[in-house]
Amino acid sequence: MPTITHAFADVTASDSALRRFLHGLPGVDAVGLEARAGSLGTRSIKTTAKAYAIDLAISMIDLTTLEGADTPGKVRALAAKALRPDPTDRTTPATAAVCVYPDMAETAVAALAGSEVKVASVATAFPAGRASLAVKLADTRDAVAAGADEIDMVIDRGAFLAGHYLKVYEEIRAVKEAAGAARLKVIFETGELSTYDNIRRASWLGMIAGADFIKTSTGKVGVNATPANTLLMLEAVRDFRAQTGVQIGVKPAGGIRTSKDAVKFLVLVNETVGADWLDSHWFRFGASSLLNDLLMQRQKLSTGRYSGPDYVTVD
Protein backbone atom coordinates (compact mmCIF):
# COMPACT_ATOMS: atom_id res chain seq x y z
CA MET A 1 0.00 0.00 0.00
CA PRO A 2 2.42 2.71 -1.21
CA THR A 3 -0.03 5.56 -0.65
CA ILE A 4 -0.45 4.72 3.04
CA THR A 5 3.29 4.15 3.47
CA HIS A 6 4.03 7.54 1.97
CA ALA A 7 1.31 9.30 3.97
CA PHE A 8 2.76 8.03 7.25
CA ALA A 9 6.45 8.10 6.31
CA ASP A 10 7.30 10.61 9.03
CA VAL A 11 5.34 8.68 11.65
CA THR A 12 7.15 5.41 10.90
CA ALA A 13 10.62 6.91 10.47
CA SER A 14 11.66 5.85 13.98
CA ASP A 15 10.41 4.07 17.06
CA SER A 16 10.14 7.37 18.92
CA ALA A 17 8.14 9.03 16.12
CA LEU A 18 5.73 6.10 15.97
CA ARG A 19 5.37 6.13 19.75
CA ARG A 20 4.60 9.85 19.75
CA PHE A 21 1.93 9.34 17.10
CA LEU A 22 0.26 6.36 18.78
CA HIS A 23 0.34 7.90 22.25
CA GLY A 24 -0.96 11.14 20.75
CA LEU A 25 -4.21 9.49 19.68
CA PRO A 26 -7.22 10.63 21.75
CA GLY A 27 -7.70 8.64 24.95
CA VAL A 28 -10.64 6.27 25.04
CA ASP A 29 -13.58 7.12 27.31
CA ALA A 30 -14.13 3.57 28.58
CA VAL A 31 -17.44 4.35 30.30
CA GLY A 32 -18.79 6.11 27.23
CA LEU A 33 -17.59 3.36 24.89
CA GLU A 34 -19.19 0.58 26.90
CA ALA A 35 -22.41 2.57 27.36
CA ARG A 36 -22.75 3.15 23.62
CA ALA A 37 -21.98 -0.48 22.81
CA GLY A 38 -24.56 -1.57 25.38
CA SER A 39 -27.17 0.87 24.09
CA LEU A 40 -26.78 -0.24 20.48
CA GLY A 41 -27.08 -3.84 21.61
CA THR A 42 -30.63 -3.23 22.85
CA ARG A 43 -31.96 -2.13 19.44
CA SER A 44 -35.08 -4.05 18.43
CA ILE A 45 -34.89 -5.79 15.05
CA LYS A 46 -38.23 -6.55 13.36
CA THR A 47 -38.96 -9.78 11.49
CA THR A 48 -38.11 -8.67 7.94
CA ALA A 49 -34.94 -6.93 9.05
CA LYS A 50 -34.03 -9.92 11.20
CA ALA A 51 -34.30 -12.28 8.21
CA TYR A 52 -32.03 -9.98 6.22
CA ALA A 53 -29.58 -9.72 9.12
CA ILE A 54 -29.40 -13.50 9.56
CA ASP A 55 -28.59 -14.06 5.88
CA LEU A 56 -26.06 -11.23 5.95
CA ALA A 57 -24.40 -12.71 9.05
CA ILE A 58 -24.19 -16.15 7.40
CA SER A 59 -22.51 -14.59 4.36
CA MET A 60 -19.94 -12.89 6.64
CA ILE A 61 -18.75 -15.96 8.54
CA ASP A 62 -15.20 -17.26 8.35
CA LEU A 63 -16.18 -20.83 9.23
CA THR A 64 -13.27 -21.90 11.37
CA THR A 65 -11.52 -25.01 12.62
CA LEU A 66 -8.21 -24.41 14.39
CA GLU A 67 -7.57 -27.50 16.48
CA GLY A 68 -4.64 -29.81 16.83
CA ALA A 69 -6.95 -32.70 15.97
CA ASP A 70 -8.01 -31.25 12.59
CA THR A 71 -7.99 -33.82 9.79
CA PRO A 72 -8.44 -33.52 6.01
CA GLY A 73 -11.86 -35.13 6.42
CA LYS A 74 -12.96 -32.53 8.95
CA VAL A 75 -11.77 -29.70 6.71
CA ARG A 76 -13.60 -31.15 3.70
CA ALA A 77 -16.76 -31.47 5.77
CA LEU A 78 -16.40 -27.86 6.92
CA ALA A 79 -15.92 -26.74 3.31
CA ALA A 80 -19.08 -28.59 2.28
CA LYS A 81 -20.97 -26.84 5.08
CA ALA A 82 -19.57 -23.46 4.02
CA LEU A 83 -20.77 -24.03 0.46
CA ARG A 84 -24.22 -25.34 1.39
CA PRO A 85 -24.93 -24.39 5.02
CA ASP A 86 -28.47 -25.77 4.74
CA PRO A 87 -28.62 -28.59 2.17
CA THR A 88 -32.44 -28.49 2.34
CA ASP A 89 -32.67 -24.82 1.36
CA ARG A 90 -30.72 -23.53 -1.64
CA THR A 91 -31.60 -19.92 -0.80
CA THR A 92 -29.26 -20.05 2.20
CA PRO A 93 -26.14 -18.03 1.37
CA ALA A 94 -22.68 -19.58 1.48
CA THR A 95 -20.26 -18.39 4.14
CA ALA A 96 -17.49 -15.93 3.28
CA ALA A 97 -14.56 -18.23 3.95
CA VAL A 98 -13.20 -21.33 5.60
CA CYS A 99 -10.35 -20.62 8.03
CA VAL A 100 -7.74 -23.32 8.73
CA TYR A 101 -4.12 -23.86 9.70
CA PRO A 102 -1.58 -23.55 6.83
CA ASP A 103 -1.07 -27.30 6.50
CA MET A 104 -4.82 -27.69 5.83
CA ALA A 105 -5.06 -24.86 3.30
CA GLU A 106 -4.43 -27.07 0.28
CA THR A 107 -7.23 -29.43 1.35
CA ALA A 108 -9.62 -26.50 1.80
CA VAL A 109 -8.65 -25.00 -1.58
CA ALA A 110 -9.37 -28.28 -3.36
CA ALA A 111 -12.72 -28.69 -1.58
CA LEU A 112 -13.82 -25.14 -2.44
CA ALA A 113 -12.50 -25.05 -6.02
CA GLY A 114 -14.77 -23.16 -8.41
CA SER A 115 -16.73 -21.45 -5.63
CA GLU A 116 -16.75 -17.91 -4.26
CA VAL A 117 -15.91 -19.13 -0.74
CA LYS A 118 -12.44 -17.97 0.22
CA VAL A 119 -9.75 -19.94 2.03
CA ALA A 120 -8.30 -18.07 4.99
CA SER A 121 -5.25 -19.44 6.76
CA VAL A 122 -3.85 -18.42 10.13
CA ALA A 123 -0.10 -17.94 10.01
CA THR A 124 2.84 -16.34 11.85
CA ALA A 125 2.99 -19.01 14.57
CA PHE A 126 -0.69 -18.66 15.47
CA PRO A 127 -2.00 -18.22 18.14
CA ALA A 128 0.90 -17.11 20.37
CA GLY A 129 3.10 -15.61 17.66
CA ARG A 130 6.20 -16.71 19.56
CA ALA A 131 8.58 -17.42 16.70
CA SER A 132 11.27 -15.67 14.72
CA LEU A 133 10.30 -13.43 11.81
CA ALA A 134 11.87 -15.94 9.42
CA VAL A 135 9.58 -18.67 10.71
CA LYS A 136 6.53 -16.39 10.51
CA LEU A 137 7.31 -15.43 6.93
CA ALA A 138 7.85 -19.07 5.96
CA ASP A 139 4.50 -19.92 7.58
CA THR A 140 2.84 -17.19 5.52
CA ARG A 141 4.49 -18.21 2.26
CA ASP A 142 3.50 -21.86 2.81
CA ALA A 143 -0.15 -20.85 3.21
CA VAL A 144 -0.09 -18.65 0.11
CA ALA A 145 1.67 -21.35 -1.91
CA ALA A 146 -1.10 -23.75 -0.88
CA GLY A 147 -3.63 -21.36 -2.39
CA ALA A 148 -4.89 -19.35 0.60
CA ASP A 149 -6.80 -16.23 -0.44
CA GLU A 150 -6.43 -14.58 2.96
CA ILE A 151 -3.84 -14.63 5.74
CA ASP A 152 -4.79 -14.09 9.39
CA MET A 153 -1.61 -13.07 11.24
CA VAL A 154 -1.04 -12.43 14.95
CA ILE A 155 0.98 -9.46 16.14
CA ASP A 156 3.83 -9.81 18.62
CA ARG A 157 1.89 -8.76 21.72
CA GLY A 158 5.03 -8.88 23.85
CA ALA A 159 6.75 -6.34 21.60
CA PHE A 160 3.65 -4.16 21.47
CA LEU A 161 3.16 -4.13 25.24
CA ALA A 162 6.86 -3.36 25.74
CA GLY A 163 6.40 -0.31 23.51
CA HIS A 164 8.45 -1.65 20.59
CA TYR A 165 5.92 -0.37 18.08
CA LEU A 166 8.29 -0.09 15.13
CA LYS A 167 9.18 -3.79 15.46
CA VAL A 168 5.48 -4.68 15.27
CA TYR A 169 5.00 -2.32 12.33
CA GLU A 170 7.93 -3.78 10.41
CA GLU A 171 6.77 -7.32 11.07
CA ILE A 172 3.30 -6.57 9.70
CA ARG A 173 4.87 -4.93 6.64
CA ALA A 174 7.05 -8.01 6.06
CA VAL A 175 4.12 -10.40 6.38
CA LYS A 176 2.06 -8.20 4.06
CA GLU A 177 4.79 -8.49 1.44
CA ALA A 178 5.06 -12.26 1.93
CA ALA A 179 1.29 -12.59 1.57
CA GLY A 180 1.40 -11.12 -1.93
CA ALA A 181 -2.08 -10.84 -3.39
CA ALA A 182 -3.71 -12.52 -0.38
CA ARG A 183 -5.66 -10.14 1.85
CA LEU A 184 -4.08 -9.68 5.28
CA LYS A 185 -6.06 -9.77 8.53
CA VAL A 186 -4.04 -8.53 11.50
CA ILE A 187 -5.04 -10.06 14.85
CA PHE A 188 -4.40 -7.99 17.98
CA GLU A 189 -5.57 -10.45 20.66
CA THR A 190 -7.48 -7.64 22.35
CA GLY A 191 -7.94 -9.69 25.52
CA GLU A 192 -4.17 -9.46 26.11
CA LEU A 193 -3.80 -5.74 25.34
CA SER A 194 -5.25 -4.75 28.74
CA THR A 195 -6.64 -1.30 27.86
CA TYR A 196 -8.90 0.32 25.30
CA ASP A 197 -6.15 2.84 24.59
CA ASN A 198 -3.89 -0.04 23.56
CA ILE A 199 -6.61 -1.43 21.27
CA ARG A 200 -6.95 1.96 19.58
CA ARG A 201 -3.17 2.20 19.17
CA ALA A 202 -2.96 -1.34 17.78
CA SER A 203 -5.76 -0.57 15.33
CA TRP A 204 -3.93 2.44 13.91
CA LEU A 205 -0.60 0.61 13.91
CA GLY A 206 -2.11 -2.28 11.94
CA MET A 207 -3.80 0.00 9.43
CA ILE A 208 -0.69 2.14 8.88
CA ALA A 209 1.33 -1.06 8.30
CA GLY A 210 -0.99 -2.24 5.54
CA ALA A 211 -3.64 -4.47 7.12
CA ASP A 212 -6.62 -5.19 4.87
CA PHE A 213 -8.58 -6.20 7.99
CA ILE A 214 -8.08 -5.63 11.68
CA LYS A 215 -9.22 -8.54 13.82
CA THR A 216 -9.94 -8.71 17.54
CA SER A 217 -8.80 -12.14 18.63
CA THR A 218 -7.56 -15.64 18.02
CA GLY A 219 -10.43 -17.18 19.96
CA LYS A 220 -7.82 -18.95 22.08
CA VAL A 221 -7.83 -16.71 25.18
CA GLY A 222 -10.35 -15.92 27.90
CA VAL A 223 -11.61 -12.61 26.50
CA ASN A 224 -12.15 -12.39 22.76
CA ALA A 225 -14.50 -10.21 20.70
CA THR A 226 -16.79 -7.93 22.70
CA PRO A 227 -19.21 -5.25 21.49
CA ALA A 228 -17.04 -2.56 23.13
CA ASN A 229 -13.69 -3.57 21.62
CA THR A 230 -15.32 -4.11 18.22
CA LEU A 231 -17.01 -0.69 18.42
CA LEU A 232 -13.62 0.85 19.17
CA MET A 233 -12.08 -0.82 16.12
CA LEU A 234 -14.99 0.26 13.94
CA GLU A 235 -14.43 3.84 15.05
CA ALA A 236 -10.76 3.44 14.12
CA VAL A 237 -11.47 2.25 10.56
CA ARG A 238 -14.06 5.03 10.15
CA ASP A 239 -11.55 7.68 11.23
CA PHE A 240 -8.78 6.10 9.15
CA ARG A 241 -10.89 6.26 5.98
CA ALA A 242 -11.85 9.86 6.74
CA GLN A 243 -8.14 10.73 6.98
CA THR A 244 -6.71 8.60 4.17
CA GLY A 245 -9.58 7.58 1.89
CA VAL A 246 -8.62 3.91 2.43
CA GLN A 247 -11.23 1.47 3.72
CA ILE A 248 -10.15 -1.32 6.08
CA GLY A 249 -12.22 -4.33 7.15
CA VAL A 250 -13.02 -5.48 10.69
CA LYS A 251 -13.29 -9.03 12.00
CA PRO A 252 -14.50 -9.79 15.52
CA ALA A 253 -13.62 -13.37 16.42
CA GLY A 254 -14.20 -15.67 19.36
CA GLY A 255 -17.22 -15.86 21.65
CA ILE A 256 -19.88 -14.89 19.07
CA ARG A 257 -22.16 -17.91 19.22
CA THR A 258 -25.80 -16.87 18.74
CA SER A 259 -27.92 -15.04 16.18
CA LYS A 260 -28.68 -12.45 18.83
CA ASP A 261 -24.96 -11.83 19.27
CA ALA A 262 -24.41 -11.52 15.52
CA VAL A 263 -27.29 -9.06 15.06
CA LYS A 264 -25.88 -6.86 17.84
CA PHE A 265 -22.57 -6.67 16.01
CA LEU A 266 -24.29 -5.84 12.71
CA VAL A 267 -26.13 -2.98 14.45
CA LEU A 268 -22.75 -1.73 15.68
CA VAL A 269 -21.48 -1.77 12.10
CA ASN A 270 -24.51 -0.02 10.66
CA GLU A 271 -24.62 2.70 13.33
CA THR A 272 -20.86 3.33 13.47
CA VAL A 273 -19.48 3.00 9.95
CA GLY A 274 -22.62 2.57 7.86
CA ALA A 275 -23.72 0.47 4.93
CA ASP A 276 -20.31 0.57 3.20
CA TRP A 277 -19.09 -2.03 5.70
CA LEU A 278 -22.23 -4.23 5.62
CA ASP A 279 -20.64 -6.64 3.18
CA SER A 280 -18.44 -9.70 3.59
CA HIS A 281 -15.60 -7.90 1.82
CA TRP A 282 -15.37 -5.50 4.77
CA PHE A 283 -16.81 -7.29 7.79
CA ARG A 284 -16.41 -10.89 8.96
CA PHE A 285 -17.29 -13.04 11.93
CA GLY A 286 -14.62 -15.47 13.06
CA ALA A 287 -16.73 -18.37 14.32
CA SER A 288 -17.23 -22.10 14.45
CA SER A 289 -20.58 -22.60 16.23
CA LEU A 290 -22.37 -19.36 15.22
CA LEU A 291 -23.55 -20.77 11.89
CA ASN A 292 -25.64 -23.50 13.54
CA ASP A 293 -27.67 -21.03 15.57
CA LEU A 294 -28.16 -18.75 12.57
CA LEU A 295 -29.50 -21.71 10.58
CA MET A 296 -31.90 -22.67 13.37
CA GLN A 297 -33.17 -19.10 13.68
CA ARG A 298 -33.52 -18.87 9.90
CA GLN A 299 -35.68 -21.97 9.82
CA LYS A 300 -37.78 -20.63 12.71
CA LEU A 301 -38.54 -17.47 10.72
CA SER A 302 -39.40 -19.55 7.67
CA THR A 303 -41.55 -22.25 9.27
CA GLY A 304 -42.64 -20.79 12.59
CA ARG A 305 -40.97 -23.53 14.59
CA TYR A 306 -37.51 -24.56 15.64
CA SER A 307 -35.89 -27.46 13.86
CA GLY A 308 -35.19 -30.81 15.44
CA PRO A 309 -31.74 -31.70 16.78
CA ASP A 310 -30.71 -33.31 13.48
CA TYR A 311 -31.37 -30.15 11.43
CA VAL A 312 -27.85 -28.78 11.75
CA THR A 313 -24.54 -30.54 11.99
CA VAL A 314 -22.72 -30.73 15.28
CA ASP A 315 -19.28 -29.11 15.08
What does this structure look like?
- It is a single chain.
- Helix 4 (47-59) packs antiparallel against helix 13 (290-303) and helix 10 crosses helix 11.
- With 315 residues, the protein is of the alpha/beta class.
- It has 13 helices and 8 strands.
- The mean pLDDT is 94.
Kindly report how far apart the N and C termini lie.
38 Å
User: Any idea what the radius of gyration is?
Assistant: 19 Å
Instruction: Give start-end ranges of low-pLDDT stretches.
Output: none
What strand line-up does the widest sheet have?
A: 7-6-5-4-3-2-1-8
Provide the succession of SSEs. Answer: HHHHEHEHEHEHHEHEHEHEH
What is the share of helical residues? 40-55%
**Main pleated-sheet profile:** 8 strands, parallel
Mean pLDDT equals 94
What proportion of the residues form beta strands (DSSP E)? 5-15%
Strand element count: 8
Would you summarize the structure shown here?
This protein is of the alpha/beta class and 315 residues long. Helices cover 48% and strands 10% of the residues.
Helices, strands, pairings?
Blueprint: H1 2-7, H2 15-23, H3 30-40, H4 47-59, E1 61-64, H5 72-83, E2 97-100, H6 105-111, E3 118-123, H7 133-145, E4 150-154, H8 157-161, H9 165-179, E5 183-187, H10 196-209, E6 213-215, H11 227-244, E7 249-251, H12 259-272, E8 285-287, H13 290-303
Parallel strand pairs: 1-2, 1-8, 2-3, 3-4, 4-5, 5-6, 6-7
Helix pairs in contact: 3-11, 4-12, 4-13, 7-9, 9-10, 10-11, 11-12
Task: Please give a handful of descriptors for the protein shown.
globular; alpha/beta; eight-stranded parallel sheet; 13 helices; single chain; 315 residues
